[in-house]
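wait is this the right file?? whatever heres the structure
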C-alpha cells in the first residue's frame, strides 16, 4: 500500500451519565480519532488519552501535538511502512504510547481491510463472542450504587467492577454482596488511590471473595504491590503499571500481580498487547481487556483482542449504550452477557459519517 496521509479528529462525546473514579468525574469524553488513508483502503484508530493528564501523563491536546509534530513525520521517512514497523520507527520517542497506539491501529486497520482479514483473526482470536463486564463509577450514595448494579445485572452483564477510593470501598462492596449475593462476579478498581500503609485496611475486602483488586497502589510501586499481594488474599491485578511486555514480565517475576488488565492504548497498541498476552499465558497469568470509554472504533478492536485464548476473565467490553446514547459506529449491544466479535475486514466497523461529523470539534490533515 502507498500511504497518502492521516486525518486527526478531536471529538466530544456526551456520556449518558457522569462517570466518577478516584481521579475525577467525566461527563463528556474528549477523544482523538485517527484515519489512515492509503491507495488501497483507509483505516481507523482511536486514541484513549483523556482531556487531562490524570489517568496517565498523556492528554488529548498533547496527543495531537506529538502525532503531528513528531510521530507522523518520522513514519513518512520509512520506506515500505506497515503496521508492524510503526513501533520500531517510533521507539526513539519516549512514552506517548496512547498516541502511538492510535496511529498503529489506523494503519493496521487499513492493511487488514485491503487484504480482507479481520483484526480478530490477525491477532489470534479463538472465540466469536466475548463475555461482558461493566465498570461502575463512584456514586453519591450506596442506594444509588445498588440501583445502578441492579440495572446492569438486568442488562445481562456477567461481571461487575466497582470503582473505589479511600472512604468509598468496604461499605459499598459489602452492600453489593449483601444485596446480590456471592454468585455475582465482583471486582474493584482503585486507580492507584491507596498507599503501602493501607494494606491492613484493604485486607478488609478479603471476606467478600472478590475476583481481584485492580491497581491499588501507584503505578511505579511494583515492590509495594508485591508486598500487598502477600498481605491480602484478594488477588492483585495490575493496570497502569503494565506498559509493555517487559513490564508485565517484571511484575510477574516480582510477584506484584496474579492477574493483568491489558489496555492496548496504555501499552502502545494491539501488537504489543498481544505480546503481553503471550507473556502472561506463558506464566499462567489470567488477563482481561480493560476499557477507556471507547467509541465503537476502539470497542471493536478491544472485542477482537478479548477473543484471544488468554483472556479468561470478563473485561470492560461493555455495550455502547453503557456510555453513549449514540455511538459513532453501529452500536455494540450486549446479548446473553456477551458481545459479538466483528467479522468484517480490519476492525470490522466503520464510523457513520454524519454521527462522526456531529461530534467533531476539530480536524487536521497530515499528508505524505
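ok assuming it is, sequence goes like this
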Amino acid at each position: 500500500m502507498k500511504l497518502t496521509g492521516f486525518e486527526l479528529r478531536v471529538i466530544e462525546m456526551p456520556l449518558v451519565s457522569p462517570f466518577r473514579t478516584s481521579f475525577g468525574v467525566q461527563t463528556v469524553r474528549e477523544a482523538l480519532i485517527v484515519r489512515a488513508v492509503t491507495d488501497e483502503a483507509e483505516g481507523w484508530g482511536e486514541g484513549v488519552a483523556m482531556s487531562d493528564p490524570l489517568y496517565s501523563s498523556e492528554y488529548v491536546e498533547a496527543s495531537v501535538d506529538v502525532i503531528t509534530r513528531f510521530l507522523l513525520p518520522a513514519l513518512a521517512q520509512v520506506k515500505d511502512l506497515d503496521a508492524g514497523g510503526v513501533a520500531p520507527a517510533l521507539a526513539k520517542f519516549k512514552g506517548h504510547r496512547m498516541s502511538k497506539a492510535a496511529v498503529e491501529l489506523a494503519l493496521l486497520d487499513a492493511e487488514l481491510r485491503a487484504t480482507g482479514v479481520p483484526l480478530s483473526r490477525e491477532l489470534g482470536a479463538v472465540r466469536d463472542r466475548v463475555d461482558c463486564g461493566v465498570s461502575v463509577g463512584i456514586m453519591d450514595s450506596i442506594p444509588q450504587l445498588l440501583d445502578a448494579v441492579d440495572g446492569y445485572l438486568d442488562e445481562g452483564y456477567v461481571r461487575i467492577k466497582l470503582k473505589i477510593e479511600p472512604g468509598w470501598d468496604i461499605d459499598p462492596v459489602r452492600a453489593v454482596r449483601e444485596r446480590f449475593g456471592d454468585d455475582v462476579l465482583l471486582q474493584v478498581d482503585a486507580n492507584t488511590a491507596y498507599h503501602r500503609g493501607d494494606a491492613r485496611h484493604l485486607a478488609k475486602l478479603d471476606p467478600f471473595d472478590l475476583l481481584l483488586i485492580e491497581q491499588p497502589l501507584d503505578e511505579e510501586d511494583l515492590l509495594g504491590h508485591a508486598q500487598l499481594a502477600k498481605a491480602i488474599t484478594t488477588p492483585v491485578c495490575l493496570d497502569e503499571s503494565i506498559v509493555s511486555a517487559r513490564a508485565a514480565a517484571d511484575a510477574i517475576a516480582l510477584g506484584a500481580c496474579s492477574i493483568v488488565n491489558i489496555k492496548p492504548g496504555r501499552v502502545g497498541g494491539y501488537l504489543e498487547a498481544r505480546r503481553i498476552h503471550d507473556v502472561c499465558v506463558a506464566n499462567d497469568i489470567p488477563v482481561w481487556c480493560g476499557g477507556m470509554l471507547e467509541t465503537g472504533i476502539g470497542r471493536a478492536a478491544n472485542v477482537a483482542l478479548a477473543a484471544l485464548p488468554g483472556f479468561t476473565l470478563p473485561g470492560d467490553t461493555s455495550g455502547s449504550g453503557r456510555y453513549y446514547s449514540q455511538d459513532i459506529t453501529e452500536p455494540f449491544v450486549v446479548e446473553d452477557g456477551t458481545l459479538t466479535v466483528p467479522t468484517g475486514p480490519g476492525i470490522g466497523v466503520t464510523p457513520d459519517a454524519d454521527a462522526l461529523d456531529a461530534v467533531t470539534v476539530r480536524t487536521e490533515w497530515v499528508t505524505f
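Residues 121-340 form a domain with the TIM Barrel fold (CATH 3.20.20.120). so i think its the right one actually
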